[in-house]
Design a protein that fits this description.
By secondary structure, the protein is of the alpha/beta class. The protein has a single domain, classed as HAD superfamily/HAD-like (Rossmann fold, 3-Layer(aba) Sandwich). Helix content is 40%, strand content 17%. The structure holds thymidine-5'-phosphate and magnesium ion (MG). GO terms for molecular function: 5'-nucleotidase activity; magnesium ion binding; nucleotide binding.
């Protein structure tokens, strides 16, 4: 396996049980691309956490950084991040304790955004030059999935309209990509007036997953899951007859403090790794061709 996927030896990789990871990957390889689906988070999983020493924006922050938002609103959104982000990543709090705070954060942020009367036609321009960056290796990632018709389901607690613009800007909004996120709704003048549907925050993705996934991907019983928050671990809950699940977690921030929790829950943990090298290597191995002798 190490010969086939040398990327698993990268210094950024940690695994609780290497043997188990190898078994899961072998099983997935045996069934090939036609049995596979990829379920991924977006912010800080498909996008970079940092680039050249600077933090990269989340979809909410992209909006924040544009001239579509007033200075007053920016100050308020920054205050929200300063207050709630430490709660989101606090390893001493349980998910149950965090949820009410997350709901409050998202509702307050969305209220602020709606007050700004954002026009749909301005979004594409706003995203250009916003500093949003998909992780290194994204072209290969999207290309392999597209070529093999592997569905990519993106579950994001970010802003769907912005997320779409980011992947359109990178040229990878392919037909096999489905997005479940917080989308804005627009009035007859194209001005954002509310957010549609149930709110998705970082710790309730499971509910959306249960409702949404099966209709696109029935009979794909092997899942490669990518996330960066412990709230992303449940994203495969909606998959029927799940056979093999491999969960890869990006540990971007507060590495020492959170290592134990990540290594005990994700199968593969990628520490401060700004690339898609490991997911790409695994995808290449799985899709390289059914019948390839595994582990050689
Ligand atoms: P996700 O990556 O789990 O989909 O969650 C989206 C991220 O967005 C989460 O880490 C918190 C972040 N966020 C902001 O940066 N600004 C905001 O205003 C809100 C509500 C969330
Ligand atoms: Mg994320």
């Amino acid at each position: 396996m190490l010969k086939m996927i040398p990327e698993l030896n990268k210094a950024t990789v940690r695994m609780r049980d290497r043997g188990q990871v190898e078994t899961i990957i072998r099983n997935m390889q045996r069934e090939g691309a036609s049995a596979l689906q990829v379920i991924s988070d977006f912010d800080m999983t498909l996008t970079r956490f940092a680039h050249k020493g600077k933090r990269c924006p989340t979809t909410h922050n992209i909006l924040h950084n544009t001239n579509l938002i007033s200075e007053e609103c920016k100050a308020k959104m920054s205050n929200l991040v300063a207050h709630y982000y430490p709660i989101e990543i606090d390893s001493s709090k349980s998910v149950e304790e965090k949820i009410p705070h997350m709901v409050e954060w998202w509702m307050r942020a969305h209220d602020l955004l709606i007050q700004q009367k954002i026009k749909k036609v301005q979004l594409a321009q706003a995203v250009k030059g916003s500093g949003a960056k998909l992780r290194e290796g994204y072209k290969s990632f999207f290309k392999v999935l597209k070529q093999n018709s592997v569905p990519l389901l993106i579950f994001s607690a970010g802003v769907g309209d912005i997320l779409e613009e980011v992947i359109i800007e990178h040229g990878v909004f392919d037909p096999n990509v489905r997005i479940f996120s917080n989308y804005m709704d627009y009035d007859e003048n194209g001005v954002a007036c509310t957010f549609k549907g149930e709110l998705i925050h970082s710790f309730n993705k499971k509910e959306g997953a249960l409702q949404n996934t099966h209709q696109f991907v029935h009979d794909r019983t092997n899942v490669l899951l990518l996330g960066d928050s412990l709230g992303d671990l449940d994203m495969a809950e909606g998959v029927q007859d799940l056979k093999n699940l491999l969960r890869i977690g990006y540990l971007n921030d507060k590495v020492e403090e959170r290592r134990e929790a990540y290594v005990s829950s994700y199968d593969i943990v990628l520490e401060e790794d700004e690339t898609l090298d490991v997911p790409n290597a695994i995808l290449n191995y799985i899709t390289a061709g059914e019948g390839t002798s595994p582990g050689q």
